[in-house]
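General statements about sequence and structure are easier to judge against a single worked case. For one protein, we set the task of working out the structure tokens from the amino acid sequence alone. This step matters because it turns folding into a mapping between discrete strings. The amino acid sequence and the backbone structure tokens for this protein are reproduced below.
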Amino acid sequence: MQSKKCRRQGSGRKVVVRQEGGQELGSQVRSRFVVVWERIDKNERATKGFMFFPISFIFQKYHDVDIDVVRKDGLILLREMAYEVKNMMDFKMSAVLRIMDSAEQAALTPQSDNGQPFKYYNAKKLNVFGPDGRPAEGTREMLLTPNPHFDHLPVNTSLSSILMPPDVDEHESKVLNAIHWSEHLDPLFVNNYEGDPSLSWQFFGSSSGFLRRYPAIAWPPEEMSSVWQRPRNAKNIYDFRTSAWYVNAATSPKDVIILIDNSGSMTGKRAMLARLTAETILDTLSDNDFVNVFKFSDYTEETVPCYKDVLLQANNENIRRLKDSLSSLKAENIANFTSALTTGFDILHKYNQHGLGSQCNQAIMLISDGPPSSYKEIFKTYNWPHRPVRVFTYLIGDSSSSNEMYTMACSNKGYYTRISDVEDVEKSILHYIEVMARPMVMYQNDHPIQWTPVYMGGKADSLSNEKKGQLMTTVTAPVFDRRNHSVRVANILGVVGTDVSIDQIVKLVPPYKLGVNGYSFIVNNNGHVLYHPNLRPLYNNEQYEETLEPAYCSVDLTEVELVENESGPRENNSALLDLRHDMIDQKEGETELSVKVHYDNVRRVATRRYKYFYNPIEGTPFSLGLAIPEGYGMYELLAEQEIKHSQKNVTEYFKGSNWKVHPDWVYCEYTGGSAAEQIFRTAEERVLHFLSRSRRPGWKWMSLRPRSHHHQSTKQDKDAYFCDKTLLQSLVLDAMVTEELERHGSHPSHSEDKHQGHQMFGLTLSFVATRSGMLRWTDHLPNPDPSQPHFSENNVRGMDETWYKRAVDQHAIEPESFVFSVPYDVGANGKPLITATHAVFVEHKGHRAAAAVVGLQFQHSTLSSHFLVNITSACTGTSTCNKTCASDKLDCYVLDNNGFIIISEDVEHTGRFFGEIDGTIMDSLVQDRIYKKIAVYDYQGVCTNSKNHFSGRGNKVSPFQPMQSVLTWLTEIVIVWLSFIHSAWGTALSYAQDEDVVYPEDYENSFEHYPMGEDIVGEQDPLAPPPSYPNNPSFVVPPIETDPMEGVDMSQYGVRRCDRKVDLYMLQPDRLNTSGQSNPLKGKLTNCHVSGCERPFSVQKIPHSNLILLVVDTLCPCGSKQLSIAPQEIVYDSGSGGCSHKTKDGLYRRRPPKCINYHPEEIEIEICGVGSTITVSFAAISIGLIYCLFDLLS
């Protein structure tokens, strides 16, 4: 192959290809096609009708039962699903409110220790045993049982345990008292769980710092250990009091200005403490808050220059950028506090008066080593007497300016603290949360319920082999102190809540009802998605498993719905923005959008037009959306086999071990607790269990889940269950259809065809996946690569698999075709397999709906050898044959519809993008509209956290024998297109040898000159200038390079979100079809060598497939550039203040419905900071005098 490599030389021009439509070529192809199609063996047995037999048989079997193909009513379907989701969420919110009420009552109850030391279950001191096997001193023993519902951890569902962050003193009286009274929550935790066994972790997070969590676990969560085996300092839980679930429940939304002293005295340890304080404040903020950070010395300016005079939504990206900006602070000059304070007040007043920001709490956080004055004139001008802006002061170091900082805070409804060491920082920040909670506590009766953004939690409760992290959200409510105290206080006792698995929500929006390529999603009041098939959290669940700290994910709807024909990155489509606006406002409606859909880690792209339906989830900040493909997606097949009164035992349809069902779909499940569910190791065991049970007397279809408005938190029957009657009976019918196909497919007359397929093409496996989630397969040869998992292990989620989705999409383009694919870049590794799939549609009353996808896997080596040796490297007929694919004169490729190489003479090319091999020809195919280049913007990209913005990266008769006739059909199709290739390459060959081809003038066009010449050897090509975008000139794409983030563990340090762009490719089959014939298109590169030689090539579509045949002449040493499909970071124009990114802050959002930021009696609370007795007295007198003065003046 070395001799085929070209060198760049001279300058080149490409001639546009022309289409070969002559009668002679058409007759030749059609003649060969008919011979191969209708005469398989020497007896010339007609098989044209037989090869379609399995499809027609499936079609007939569905018609033998009572079936219908109906049009979906999207809005009715949506309303039913939204009601079910609302019902489930009502259960969770009711459980939280019961815990809240119980906690407030328990805190009022006097605690008695009866003279005995108080004992409790400290998670870190559970099941720690000494060398003698007895519990170690100071520890307790508890029976813990692994439970898949609770992250597969060992738990005790009768008790809760206490999780203590390392900085919390468990011996402090305030902590012990709260642990004591909160013990009374255990019966309620148990009662909630028995009434709703789908409940996840329940908890009470105390303001004193401990977390009471149900069910009880040991920490670290090992079931048994010894003193010397259990790590004592590893895996400490984080201090949850700065987390979004706690802060959002304890406070209303807030606008925050952080002023950080950057004067000459703020160096060394002071500078470090100041930055750490600012970062900790930022960590307490979330999507409903707004913030900016300003540094001040002799003048005041934003730490991020492009965030000038604005407040930013405190989403993950903005918080990260603000925190990053703190590392560039350099101490200089003298602090101008007047400038800093007036800047803060001006911005907050502007936002308040113009209806911007949170429209709730407002605060200035002043971080300094001490001001020379208390600046009461500024506060008098901007903030008194009503004090709409709270001022929190953080004195850094051992300065003597405590009086001034104390006065600033206390005269403006804030709090003062001194920070001398790192351990002071977090404790100091917590005070602002306590202060902002005061109005809510003082009103007593209003307990706003909050839902957090989505995050990656513990291991999913799934019957699949993958026990990976699951998406979660948390619902919380505050707990108020109703006790009487000797002084006026308003204390928040803590926050109660429960975690909610997103899988529990998706169960209520069954994917089978949406159909293939349909999906659901949920949007909150900020326009962020709670779940969406395109949501890709940045981090895995490692942080959560080690510390329980959630890494929240705030991804906007506009970042997961990629509209077709967008003009540039973040140039949002108006129809998409209207959809987003309506969902945020919780309206009902429907719309249509054409979107880009990517597969295989953003390497393949397809376009689809969807119908969107959306509806509010009442009583929550969420709206539910459904997206259903236009055309085939709007119809569904209704076909079921009645189970209860069936004359045949339906379990007979499920014999053998070569079938599986979708592990995440709920056919039936026990709902009365996890104990019954734990008997099932697989989803198949559970299906068979309920099918057997359905035959027993007294069986009832329990297809309605419990209703929250009838729920009194009563214990459910341990044998309570739920069954999706439609799904289960559809599964039985699909099993029956494929079971009967077995007898037809095993007819003796098929043996020769079977042998032909096995031997000629290396058939290893055949399979069928149905609309009901069933997968059946047959192994025809042993696994060619034992190091790789079996097909059924990684492809059990039929309708969700890429090959299923692509087959259905391909059916809309060419109903009789198969989709051929190989794994990405598989050529250099192992023994690759080619997968071929075909969608089976059933028709009724003029409507068609997808019923299944059938498929085969071939040994790539066998099929490739047949292609290279028997077809393209042999001469047949009367055609002249000076060149073959085996020669050095031609390169031959079979490419799929996304430009990936299926077959090449170089096996290492298998699975690679053709543009990486020969970008010049690929570029020509794009310019000639054979492939369409589609720009895909990835707004969830991952880049390295550096300043450089360039990143990239069996013998027995098997149940699957029914598909043997499908195999025969596909085998014949393979023969057809291989034979067709033979003919096509012959045509291309004759063209490649044709030196006198004349092109009309209108076929000739000038294109860019490709770089060529001897300098390609040993010298790097110069970077091409970035392309310009007239509609959006504000960004450029960096030069192509490989993606270094490919395969990187995103949980490790040093990665960040970024916007990335990649150009992907999609075949335009209409360009290769004329009058129903697949005629070749021919082209050549000219003026590409000093000798004046030309480089012809030919491309032709392979019938009944998603493939094309490409033949390229290699004798003329034209240059070959490379095209990459590695995503590149987008660096935006820095002309708007130095930002190399675009923010999402201009997008519409809806504020939370409740804001509790003021109570008229709050002024009576005198606790506003920590200082010496003299300082407090002096400050109190000063504040009293100021208040009196203002009363007189007003």
Q: What stands out?
A: The radius of gyration is 35 Å.
